[in-house]
C-alpha cells in the first residue's frame, strides 16, 4: 500500500529538467573534484562569513503545467479594454509568420550578443535591416541597432547633444512641452545627474538664449498635432543648438522626414511595427543621426565589412567608443540593444514593404480624419486641425470625466493630457470602431454616417509636410511579401546563427542558461502582452499581483528590503542604483559625495554608469590573485572620506572567485560614509547559498536575463531590477503618468513604469517552478560545473585565478598567453577555431587580456561539458603541432578558422586536411554548424563604415 502511495506522489520536478547533470553525473563530477556532496563543495567555495544556511522562504515548487495554470489565473485579472490612449504606445498586429518563427523560436531568442561575428550573420542582417529602415524613414543616414525605449533614447540624444555642442554653449536643454510626459521626465532625471538643466518650453514662443545647447521636439506631438518645425529648427541651429526630433515610424510613412526638416538627431520607439504593447515593454527604441556625428552616437551599430575570402560580412562597428573599451570616457553606459524587438520590427517592415507600410499609415490616418470630422460635426473642438492618428478634444474636466466613464462602460480607454481628452487610433482600428467612438461622444444625438463624413473630411496633414521622398527601396524590403517567402527568409537567417539550440554558449559573466519553454509561453498571452502601460491600475490587477510576488521572491533570494522592476537593462540597473545612492546622500545633507571607487577589473559599464550618474571615478587596484587590494581600497576610502559616495563591486569577483574579505570591504566603505553598490552579474553563484543584502551591499542590480532565465535575445532584451536596503527604498524610481516607486523617487529612468513588464513572467515562472530547493541546487551545480571544467582544462590551459581553497565560483578564466608565445596562436584564433567544432567562444580577453572566461551554468549536462573540454584539449593539440613545427605558424588550421562550406569544397593547398578543418571530431558530423562567412576583418569595417543594407549589386 505504501509503495502504491509513493508511486502516486512520485512527480518529477521542473528543476530536474532545468539542471543539466543527472544525480549520477553530479556524483561523478564531485568525485573527480574530491568532494562527497554539493553541500561540502559549496561550503568550501564560499567564505564562511557570508554563508546562509536557511532555506529560502519561497513557495514550494510547482510542476510546469501547475505554474502555467497559476500564472494564468493571476494574469486573467487584467482587463483587456480597447485602448486609444496613445502617448507613444499603440496596438499593432504581429504578423503570424514573425510571431511563430522568431518570438516563439529559441533559435532566435537564445542567441548571445554578436561579438563573434562569424556565427551571428543572420541576426546582424536583420539588425542592419532595422538600421536601414530607421535611416530611410527618418531621413538621416546613420542609425544604431536600437536603444532601450523612446525616453532613454531622448536622454541619450541630450547627452550626445551636449557632447557635440562643445564648450562655447551653456548647460540648458530645451524640451518642447508637447513632448511625451514620460520622455520629459526621463530626460530631466538624466540631466539632473549630469549637472545639466532642463527648460520645458512652448515651441511656438521659445527664444533661444546663449545658455542652451540643444532642443528636443515631438513630431507628431503628444497631443497628436503635426507642426512644420523647419523655421524653428533653422533658428535653433543658427544659435548652435543640436536639434532632436522624437518621432513615430508609422507617421513618417506619410510625413516629411526629420532629416528633411533639418533635424540633427531622430529618436523614437519602433513598438508599433509589430511589437506587442506588453504593458510598456520590451520595445526597441531607435536613434538616427547625421553622418558626421556617427562616432559620437550611443549604442550598438552593425556594419558591413569583408571576410577572409573577400565576401561581405556583418560585424559590430565602432566598438572603440563604447564602455567596454572607453569605460568612464564612453559615449554611454549602454551594454546592449533591444535586439529581439528590433528584429521583430525590421521583419514587420520586410513583410509589409514600403507599399504595405504606407497603406497601413494612410488607412490609420483616414480613419482618424473620419473621427475628427465626426467629432466636429457633433460640436466638439479639436486642439489642432493638423494631425496623423491622434486627436486631442478640448473639454472641461466634468465633460472629460463623463466621457471617460461612458467609454469605460463600453470597455474603452481614452487618454488624458492637460486640458484634453486623447483618442489615438492604430493599425487595429476600423470603421466600426470609429462609429462606436462617435456614439460615445454623440451622447444621445444622431451618430454621423461615416460615408457622409468622408465627403467633407479636410486634409489633416499640411501640404508642406506630406512625404514625397521614397523609402525602403532596397530589394530586402520588396521581396518577401508572401508567407512562404518570408518564412524561408527567416529560416535562412536563422541557419547563419549559433544559439543554445545548437550547443552550449560558455560565456563567462553572461550566464547563458536554459530559457525553458514553459517560462516563455506566457509572453504571447493576450493577458500579458496586450495592455497599454497607462491603463487605469484597476485594469492591471494581474500585473499588480505579479509585480508584488516577483518583488517579494527577488527580495527573499537576495536579502534586500525593496525592489524596483523599472530598469530595463543591467546598465540601467547600475545607473538607477547609483541615482538612488545620490538621492540618499542628498537627503542626509551630503550631496557633495560624488566619488565612486571602482576596482580595475570591473566591467566597463560600471565606470560608464558612475559618470552618467554624475560621479567621479577613482580606480582601486587588484592584487596578483585578482582580488581587490585591501590596502589600496582602505587608503583611497580614507583619502576621499569626505566625498565618498559609493564603491561598485562585482561579487563573486570579476575574476570568477569568491573574495574572502567581502564583509570587510563593505565595512571599510560604510566606515568612511559611502554606500556599497554590488553588480549582480554574478548572482547565479549566490542564490540559496548567501544573500548580498545580508552581508554588506546596500544596493544591487539583478540581471533577470542571466540568473533568472529571461533570454538574451541575441543582445537584448535585458531586465536589471535593483534591490535596496530599507534606508534606500524611498528613493526608488517613480513615474509621471502612473503612481509607483518610492515616495522620494529619483524620477523615471525608463519610459514605462515597470520597464519591460511583459517578460517578467519568465522569471516568475522560473522561481515558481524551481522552488527553494531547486534554486539552491541550481547554484550549487553552476559552481560544480565551473570547477569541473577548471579541473579538466587546467593541464591544457591553466586557470588564472582561484580562491585560497583552490576553487573558482561559477566561472573560470583560462590562460592563453603561453600559446601566443610558443605558437603565435592568438585568443581570436582559438575563438574562431571553436566555431569549426560547433561552439561559441567563451568571453574573450576580459577581464584579463589573452584569456577566456568560461561559464557553463547549471543547465549543461556532463556530456556537453565533456564534449566542450574535449574540444578545447583537441585545439591545444592542434596548437602543439604548430609548436613542434609540423605546420607553419602563419598557415594552419587555427589561423584560417573558421572554415566555410565554400572553402572546404573549393581549391585546397593547405598543410592540413579538409576533414580536420571541417570535422575535427567525429561527433561534429552529427550536428555540423557551417559558418556563413570566414573570419571578418574588423579594421576594414571601421575604415569603410557602411551601416545600412549593402548595395543592391550584392543581391544580384
Question: Which descriptors apply to this entry?
Answer:
24 strands, 33 helices, alpha/beta, 7-stranded mixed β-sheet, single chain, 956 residues
**What does the largest sheet look like?**
7 strands, mixed
N- and C-termini, Cα separation:
74 Å
Beta-strand proportion: 5-15%
The chain-level structural class is alpha/beta
Taking Cα atoms only, what radius of gyration do you get, to the nearest Å? 28 Å
Multimerization status: single chain
Number of helices: 33
Strand order of the largest sheet: 2-8-7-6-5-3-4
Chain-averaged pLDDT: 94
The percent of residues in helical segments reads 25-40%
Low-confidence stretches: none
Described by the principal axes of the CA atoms, the overall outline is globular
Total number of strands: 24
What features would you describe in this structure?
- With 956 residues, the protein is of the alpha/beta class.
- Helices cover 38% and strands 11% of the residues.
- The protein is built from 33 helices and 24 strands.
- The strands form five sheets. A seven-stranded mixed beta sheet has the order 2-8-7-6-5-3-4, sandwiched between helices. It has a seven-stranded mixed beta sheet with strand order 15-21-20-19-18-16-17, with helices on both faces. Strands 1-13-14-12-11 form a five-stranded mixed beta sheet.
- β11 (381-382) and β12 form a beta hairpin.
- α14 (339-377) crosses α16, α14 crosses α17 and α27 packs across α30.
- The longest helix is centred in the middle third of the chain and has 39 residues, at 339-377.
- The termini are far apart.
- The model has no long low-confidence stretch (mean pLDDT 94).
